[in-house]
Amino acid sequence: MTSLSYNAVMERKGEIVKRAVGIDYQQFERDGIAFDYELMMKEAGYSLEEIQAIQSETGVGNTPLYELKNLTELVRRMSPSGKGGRIFVKDEAANPGGSFKARRAAVSVYQASKLGYKGVMAATSGNYGAAVASQAAMRNLKCIIVQEVFDSSGLGQPEILEKGRACEAYGAEVVQLSVGPELFYQFLALLEETGYFNASLYTPFGIAGVETLGYELAEQAQSQAGKKPDAVVVTHAGGGNVTGTARGLIKAGCKDTQVIGASVDLAGLHMASDTDFNKKSFTTGHTGFGVPFATWPDRADVPRNAARPLRYLDRYVTVTQGEAFYVTELLAQLEGLERGPAGNTSLAAALSIAKELDREQVLVVQETEYTGAGKHPLSQLNFAKSQGIVVRKGDPRENIPGREIVIPTSPNQIGAVEVELDKLRRSYLRKALAEADSTKLTEGELKFLAEEVNSSPKYVKNFVRGEVDNEA
Amino acid sequence: MNQATAGDWVQIFNVVLNPEERATIIPDETKKVPLTMMVKGFMVTERASLGDVVKIRTVTDRVVKGELVSINPGYDISYGRPLKELLTIGSEARRFLAGGGKG
C-alpha cells in the first residue's frame, strides 16, 4: 500500500500535481532557472475570446462598472484645485459565487470537465472556494475545498467560516484544517485519494480567466467615461488578480494605464503562526500573501505559477485594516453598495490615490466581493475585540496589526503607503539567484530574470555584481 | 444532544500530523500543537456518542473515520452588535460632503 506519511506524500508531489492539473510543465522549462512564461500562457491557457465564451456559459463576467459619484466628490473636497479623479468600481460581487474568483473558477472547472475529471478540489480559505463550488455545481462536478480555518483551540476565523458555509451551500465538501502550511500535504493526499482535478489558483487557464476582468473594465471605462482608465487599483494577495487584470488591460490596448496593487498591511503577523492566526482581522488581500507571492511566485501548488505580479505592477501600496473597514462603511453609506471588506482594500487605496489625479482622469477599482455574517466589518471587528485587539477611532497611522485597529475619524486620514517596488525586485532576484550560479548566467536566464522584474538585463547584471560585492 | 444515529449530519475530528511529524520551517507555537482536521457528513455508524470514533459519508461520497465532535453542527458566525466606532461614519461623511470638506 502507498504510504500516506508526510514525507512520502510530499515526495510524490510532482506526479500528483501533474496528474491533477493535466499540464506537463517541463515543456516550458528553458536554460537553468528560466522558463518560457508567454509560451506557457499560450499553450496551456486560452485566448481571450475562448475565455469569454467559457465564462458566458456559466454566467460569469460582464459585471457592472459603477461610477462612485459621492466618493469622487468626497475626494475632490480634500484635493487641491483641479485634482480628484473620477472613481469607478467594477462590481465583481455580481458574479456567481460572489467575487472575481468566479472568473478563475469558471475556466478551471471547464477544464476539469473537458478532461473528464469527476470532481475538482481547491486549497483556499478565500472567496475562491465558493467560486469553485458554484462553478462545479453548474457543471455537475463534485467539489472538495480544503481550508485553513481554526487555531489549535478550535476557534474558527469568522471570515473563513463564512466562506466555508458558502461552499457547503453550493454542495461542496469542506475539509477544515488547523493552522499550518502542511495543509498542502493533506491537499495532495486528498487529490491522490479522489483523483479529482486541482483547480489551482495559479494555472495558466486560471490566470487567463482574470484577463476578461481587465479587458471588460477598459471597454466599460471607454464607453461610460469616454476614455480608457488612467489607473486601475487591484487588491493584491496571491498575484493572480494583478497579473490577469494587467494582461487583460494590455489586450484592450491600455498601454498607459497604471496598474497599482494594494494590500492590507499585516506586517508583524506570521502567516503560519497558531497564535497570530486569529489576530488577523483580514484573511486575504494582505501583505502576508502579497509580498511573498510577489517576491517568490513559485511557492504555489503548481510547478510554475502563472501569477507573476512583479511583471505587471507599476506601483504597490498598503492600507491599514482600519482604513479598509472605514471605506467599507463609506461605500455602503454614500454609494448604497454593501460589500465585503477584503475586496474594498483597493477602494481604500483609491480614495488616497484619486487625490493625485486630475479631475478628468479615470481611476477604476477593479473588484468588490460579497458580504455576509463573518465577512463584514461588524463581524470582523467584534471578533477582533473578543481576541483582545483594541478597536478605536483615531489616526489610522497608529494602527498596529494584531494589536490595535484604528478607524479613521475623517476621510482625510486615508493615506495609501508606498511599498518600494525596487526592494521587492531585489528580493525576487536574491531568491531566484539562490538556485543559480550567478557568475555563469546565460543570456536566456538574464532575459528571463529581467522580464520577471519588469526591468532590463542590465539591471539584473548590475544587481548580480552588487550581490557578489556584498558577499566578498 | 450527545447521541447520534446512522444518517445524522455530524462533524468529525482527526489529528493529521502529531507535533513531531510537522514541517520543520514553521513557528514554534505551531510546531508544538498537532495539525488537525474537521469534516462533516452523514453518519454511517449505527449509534454513537460524542467522543466515539465513527464513520461518516461526506457529500462527495468519501467515507471518513474520526472522533464525533458535533451533531448537526451549526453556523455560529454572526454580525454581532453595532459598534460605536462604525455607527457615525456615514453621517460624518455626509456632513463632510455638505460642509465643503471641513470635517
The end-to-end distance of chain A, rounded to whole angstroms, is 51 Å
What is the number of helical segments of chain B per DSSP (H or I, 4+ residues)?
A: 3
Greatest interface and its participating residue counts: A-B, 64 and 44 residues
Helical proportion of chain B? 10-25%
Unreliable residue stretches of chain A? none
Quick structural gist:
Chain A has 472 residues and is an alpha/beta fold. In chain A, 44% of the residues lie in helices and 14% in strands.
Q: How is the topology of this model organized?
A:
The complex is a heterodimer of chains A (472) and B (103).
Chain A: H1 6-11, H2 13-21, H3 37-43, H4 48-57, E1 65-67, H5 69-78, E2 86-90, H6 101-114, E3 119-123, H7 128-138, E4 142-150, H8 158-169, E5 173-178, H9 183-194, E6 197-198, H10 204-225, E7 231-235, H11 240-251, E8 258-264, H12 287-295, E9 315-319, H13 321-335, H14 345-353, E10 362-365, H15 377-386, E11 390-394, E12 404-408, E13 417-419, H16 421-434, H17 443-452, H18 457-471
Parallel strand pairs in A: 2-10, 3-4, 3-6, 4-5, 7-8, 7-10, 8-9, 11-12
Antiparallel strand pairs in A: 1-2, 9-13
Chain B: E1 3-5, E2 9-17, H1 28-31, E3 35-43, E4 47-49, E5 53-57, E6 63-71, H2 84-87, H3 89-98
Antiparallel strand pairs in B: 1-4, 2-3, 2-6, 3-5, 5-6
Fold and architecture overview:
The complex is a heterodimer of chains A (about 475) and B (about 100). Chain A has about 475 residues and is an alpha/beta fold. Chain A has helices at about 5-10, 15-20, 35-45, 50-55, 70-80, 100-115, 130-140, 160-170, 185-195, 205-225, 240-250, 285-295, 320-335, 345-355, 375-385, 420-435, 445-450, 455-470; strands at about 65, 85-90, 120-125, 140-150, 175-180, 195-200, 230-235, 260-265, 315-320, 360-365, 390-395, 405-410, 415-420. In chain A, the strands form three sheets. A seven-stranded mixed sheet of chain A has the order 1-2-10-7-8-9-13, sandwiched between helices. In chain A, strands 5-4-3-6 form a four-stranded parallel sheet, sandwiched between helices. A two-stranded parallel ribbon of chain A has the order 11-12. The longest helix of chain A is centred in the middle third of the chain and has 22 residues, at about 205-225. The radius of gyration of chain A is 21 Å and the shape is globular. By secondary structure, chain B is an alpha+beta fold. In chain B, the strands form two sheets. Chain B has a four-stranded antiparallel barrel. A two-stranded antiparallel ribbon of chain B has the order 1-4. Chain B is elongated and about 70 Å long. The termini of chain B are far apart. At the A-B interface, helix 5, strand 4, helix 8, strand 5 and helix 9 of A face strand 3 and helix 3 of B. Strand 5 (about 175-180) of chain A pairs antiparallel with strand 3 of chain B, so a sheet runs across the interface.
